[in-house]
Every structure is written in C-alpha cells, then in structure tokens.
Amino acid sequence: MTNKLSTISKHSTLTCFWKNIVTIGLLMIGSLQLQAQKDTIVIIFAPTATSADIIHFKTALNAKQLDISYPSEARLWEIECRSGKVCKFMGTAYSDVNEVIKKVSSQTKTESIGKNYFTFTPSFINVPAQEPQGPFTTKQLTACNGVPIVANKGTANEQVTIALIDSGVDNNHPFFKYSGYFTSTSRSFIGANPFNDHNGHGTHIAGIIRIMDIIGGGTNSFQIMNLQTQEPDGSGKVWNAIRAVDWANTHGADIINMSIGYIHDPLIESVVGKQPLEVAIEKANHMHDVLVVASAGNEADDIDLVKHYPSAFASDNLISVASDSCSLSFSTSFSNFGVTNVDLAAPGENILGPNLHGHTPQWTRKTGTSMAAGIVTGAAAILATHISIANDGQLKCAILDGADFQGYPVMTEGTLHTPDALDSLQDGSCATAAMRVAPPTQTEAAANPLVTKNKYGIEAFPQPFTHTINLQFTARESGSANWFILDAFGRIIDHGELLTTEGLNRMTWDGSQVRSGLYWFNINLTGQRPLVRKMLKQWE
Hints:
Blueprint: E1 21-27, E2 37-45, H1 51-61, E3 64-69, E4 74-82, E5 86-89, E6 92-94, H2 97-107, E7 112-113, E8 118-120, E9 125-129, H3 138-142, E10 160-166, E11 187-188, H4 201-215, E12 222-228, E13 235-237, H5 238-250, E14 255-258, E15 262-263, H6 266-269, H7 276-288, E16 291-295, E17 308-309, E18 318-324, E19 344-347, E20 351-354, E21 363-367, H8 369-384, H9 392-401, E22 404-405, E23 414-415, H10 418-426, H11 442-447, E24 468-475, E25 479-487, E26 492-500, E27 503-510, E28 517-524, E29 531-537
Parallel strand pairs: 1-7, 10-12, 10-14, 11-12, 14-16, 16-18, 18-19
Antiparallel strand pairs: 1-2, 2-4, 3-4, 4-5, 5-6, 8-13, 9-21, 15-17, 20-21, 22-23, 24-27, 25-26, 25-28, 28-29
Helix pairs in contact: 4-8, 5-7, 8-9, 9-10
C-alpha cells in the first residue's frame, strides 16, 4: 500500500440528533467537478434502529441504497452533491461530503465515522528465481537456513480453510494444478473471474501459503477461498473488502489473509471509533472465531501514529505483521512498525512464490510485509491442524507468545517462531485465550451504562498507567465478586475476590511487578455479565 488518500478537514461540534448509527464511511468516486457528482457512503446501523429510522435517515441524505452486505449489515448508499461542492443533509447545504459526514457524526451517537477508502496491495520488489527442484525447504522459501517458521502439521484438523482477500489467484500455474486446492466458495467482488489474476500479488501469496503447508508435512491440508477484491493495478474499494470478510465469515473460513491496506485520515480519525471494515472483522470473531492476518504496510511508518488499516485495528482476532530478513534484522527500509499496533515480524524479504502463468520465469522472489503476512497465515494454519476446532484466540495467543525476542519495534518485540508457538498451543499457555465476554443485550446495556461503551463493555483505558491503578465499576446489586487480571495473550496473571455494594465500587491494583504492555481487568459481578476494562502500562 503506497497511496495515502486523505482529505483534511476541521471537525464540527453540533447538537446530538440521530441516535441509531454506529458506523459510517465515505468512498470518493473521483474528485468533485462543477456538475452534479454522486458519491457513495458505507453505513452500519445499530441493532436498535427500526426500519422507519433507516428510511428517515436515507431521506434526510437524499440517498439511494445500492447494496447491503451480511452479516455486518453494512449498507452502500449513493448520495448526490450538486453545484460542484454542495451536498445536502436534512435540507441544509454543506461544502462537501466530508462536511456531511462530520454533521452526521456530530448529530449521532456513533461508534465510528470515516471515509471508506480505496485500498491497495502493498508495493513489492520482484526478483526472478529458478524453479524449485525437489521438496520445498525453508531455505528455498526464505533463501536462508535456520528460520523456524514452520512446524510439523497435526492430525486433529485435516482441512483448514484460508480466505485470501487479494487480487485473485492464477490457477493455471502448475503449482496450483490440484483441483481441490481452491474452495467452491471462491468468488470475485469486482465482477471478474477470481482465477484471472492480472496483478500477481494474490498468486504469490497463495503460493507462499501452500509452500508452508508442504514444508510442514502436508499435501493439501490447506484450502484457499480465493476472494478477489483488487483490480489489476492493485487498487480496490473498502466496500468490496467488507463484502469479502462477510463472505468468508459465513462460508467456512478459519483464517483470513488481508495483505491490503489504506492510510486513514488523522483529523477524521480523532472523532472515529470503529470503521465499517473493522465491524465486519469483529463480526467474524464473534460468530465463527475467524482469525485475520494483516500486513502492516510498506511505508516505513510508525502506524501507532500514522494509522494503516486493517493492520492497526484493535480487533481481538487480528494479527498485524511487519517484515524482517531471514538474518534476523528488521526491514527498516520499508516495513511499517508500531509497539501497539503491530504484533510481530516475519520473514518478508526475497520470499519465493509462483509468478503469473506464462510469465518467465515461473517463480519469483518478492519483498514486502505482504509476504511476511502470508508466512504468518501459513504458520497459523499449521497450528490449526493441531486443534480439532480452529479458534482465533488460541491461534493468536500461540503465535504472539511464541515470538522470538529480537528487540524489534513491535508489540512482542520479536519475530515468528512457529515451533515455540506450537509449544504454547500444546502446553496450555493459551487455554484461556478463547475467553469471550458476551456482548450485552439491549436491556442489559440500558441498565448498565458501562457495557454500552463498545462490544465487550470496555471503557477507555487509563493513560498513563501508574504502578497503582484505581479501578471503578458499577454493580447492580451487593454481593461477592471474583476479579482477574489477564495479559495480552489471555493468561491470568493475578486474581482475587472482593465484596461489592450496589452502585459505584472502587478497587486498586498494584502493577509494579508486570512489564509494560496491554492488560485486561475482568470482574464477575452478581446478577450481570462480566465487565471488562482495558489497561495499558506505558513502555518505560
């Protein structure tokens, strides 16, 4: 992803009016001209919105619904701007579509609002490679020895399905001649044949994933659900990415690979919570425990500051991957990084994969975080063969817990080490990582304001984190409560019991003995769902 599309605009603060919108985004189709120009927005309504609410809002925007995607229930609406840069919302004219979006944001209790960007496959470097001879090895894949990115596959799960959201796959390449390698649910979201890849990016990633399977001792343990969202030039639309995630969620994917991305407008982001694509990704978590692996991007940016999505989403089921070399040096010349928003690195330099069929040579080596994400996806799929039902929480925990420390500028400070990840999966270290705090019902949300903050009832974390942190929560009734502190991998590191009274309660916790990082406070209260708060101890 090299294109940074953003529109800078000031924020407005207006009286709250609309109460049922949780997500809205904008996709600019071309620049505004002097004639009437139509734009499309993506919008997701809250469960409390009625049909009358939706019709009322559509009328206020003078919008036309073009499409809807399930199960995220994202809607693609077309709106019209006239006289060059004049758009209307509820009868009032605004200078452009960005102003309309800000107006919608200010008048609604939105969970998120922002543009529905164009996405791009990251740029990469092509290096011709000789056709592999004999069995694949990690040396052939990464061009060096001793890189522990593969473990032997298991027997608990004989078929792992990986949704590849990319430019398509050229299945005419001899490497993909096995007819069962792709699922019957493969499809294109750009009105093309998903097996006509005119870019080469998706074909290379699919090849990396299959090589990982073969090195791990499989033959065709992985199936690819080939979901084409990117055009031949590598560009795409977030709307199609949302549709692809929804499709993967409802058609049996265990893992989603997203080696695509976009840079978010920092001014708009300051009033944004979740974005439509993020909602779709989290829906895949809630419904079917789908793990998402995303490339961190190739701009050499700190994406804690310059947000690259989807890799910077805070979704529990997402792993964000940077690149390093097989000689264990971080790819500082191109790889994005971030101690909060990037989880780990994996080899991304000179990675072997198939070229487009008919191109010479048939194999190339490419460099980029996309290749690193493909390797992590393959590692996650290998781990999934060791558990009867693939669970995104356990897979993510194992991969992050097994990371080999290298002092990199990422959350784990390390690189992929699949054998250690397998140890973490099998020794029980990640047994609690699948713990879910069920989303509240509408009645519970109304009765307890704390749990309306977001999908798990998580309030904004205190920052900066001091060694002794004061926590407060509301209990509906008196009783005893068990509390737990969990680390970023879901492991319990402290716990206790306390007596609570009806109403506001307070407690303190001493965090002086734990390292910097992300932690979760979970308390089980009498007569209500568990409450959760996120805490961040600053890097010292």
